[in-house]
Specification:
This protein is of the alpha+beta class. It has two domains: 114 residues, Uridine Diphospho-n-acetylenolpyruvylglucosamine Reductase, domain 3 (2-Layer Sandwich), CATH 3.30.465; 112 residues, Enolase-like, domain 1. The protein is 36% helix and 25% strand. The strands form four sheets. A five-stranded antiparallel sheet has the order 4-5-10-6-7. A four-stranded antiparallel sheet has the order 11-12-13-14. Strands 1-3-2 form a three-stranded parallel sheet, with helices on one face. Helix 5 runs antiparallel to helix 8.
Length: 291
């Protein structure tokens, strides 16, 4: 398996990268960790005329806590996010999610920004970031803009990035103190693509009722699915098995996951419902302990 022929650039700054993207547009593809792009090239499912390798753009390699947010440069390796104690304390959901990504070797090369830009609905980080209400900063030679998750992810393997734009940063609001969290998924083998999963954030009031909920579903549609109906059902109710069951049923009521050789749409819908109930229970227990 060999990739099709291509021209190669390795810029050392964001401005240089943006200049190349402005010049070549659709003909260029950005290479970061390469854990998704290189297989696509080798299978010839992607055939760009030019690769723009941003591994020398070290200004995009940072992970900092600032003004109540975790700021993640697009070139941060997934393994660095996994090992970061600051990230684990501030946004523990991300550490729980990133440990499901492929294998250690993949996380050593794969980047957080690359996972977002690839936009696979069965990928862990986009779903966790959607649940967290992350914001995505993108730049081009024309200027800069910030996108919410519902704006960033358009459909399967497609984002709102224009051909001349580069994802530069993911900004993740730090959840309030006392927020419980959970990330669960099911795959046939360790490191395989998940057949379903859920990312959950729950905050419980002193009287045991749910005062805040955020739920995003994995492999449930062409993008990360924010289960707003489930969130609404949880608010104000005593948090427990009954509310988790009702919320999980509501979350999957209108889902139509893809049918493939690994399972039918009905199987995946039932699987996601069961996984969401587990995630809600786990997040709820953590929230109660924190409270």
């Amino acid at each position: 398996m060999k990739p099709p022929p291509f021209e190669y650039d390795d810029p050392s700054s964001v401005d240089e990268t943006l200049g190349l993207l402005a010049e070549h547009g659709d003909a260029a593809k950005v290479l970061a960790g390469g854990q998704s792009l290189v297989p696509l090239l080798n299978f010839r499912l992607a055939r760009p005329d030019r690769l723009v390798d941003i591994n020398k753009v070290t200004e995009l390699d940072y992970l900092t806590l600032e003004n109540g947010s975790l700021r993640i440069g697009a070139l941060v390796r997934q393994s660095r996010l996994e090992r970061s104690e600051d990230a684990a304390r501030a946004v523990p959901l991300l550490r729980e999610a990133v440990r499901f990504v492929g294998h250690v070797q993949i996380r050593n090369r794969g980047t957080v920004g690359g996972s977002v830009a690839h936009a696979d609905p069965a990928a862990e980080l986009p779903v966790a970031l959607a649940a967290l209400g992350a914001r995505f900063r993108v730049r081009s030679a024309r200027g800069e803009r910030t996108l919410a998750a519902e704006e960033m992810f358009v459909t399967h393997l497609t984002t709102a990035l224009e051909p001349d734009e580069l994802l530069t940063e993911i900004e993740v609001p730090v959840p309030a103190v006392g927020t419980g969290y959970a990330f669960v998924e099911f795959a046939r083998r360790l490191g395989d693509f998940a057949l379903g999963g859920a990312a959950v954030l729950i905050r419980v009031a002193g009287d045991g009722s749910c005062e805040n909920a955020s739920v995003a579903l994995l492999a449930a549609g062409p993008t990360p699915v924010r289960a707003s109906r489930a969130e609404e059902l949880l608010l104000g109710r005593a948090f427990g098995d009954a509310s988790a069951r009702d919320a999980a049923q509501a979350a999957v009521a209108d889902l139509q996951p893809t049918t493939d050789i690994h399972g039918s749409s009905e199987y995946r819908r039932d699987l996601i419902e069961a996984l969401l109930r587990r995630a809600l229970a786990k997040a709820g227990e953590r929230a109660k302990e924190a409270t």
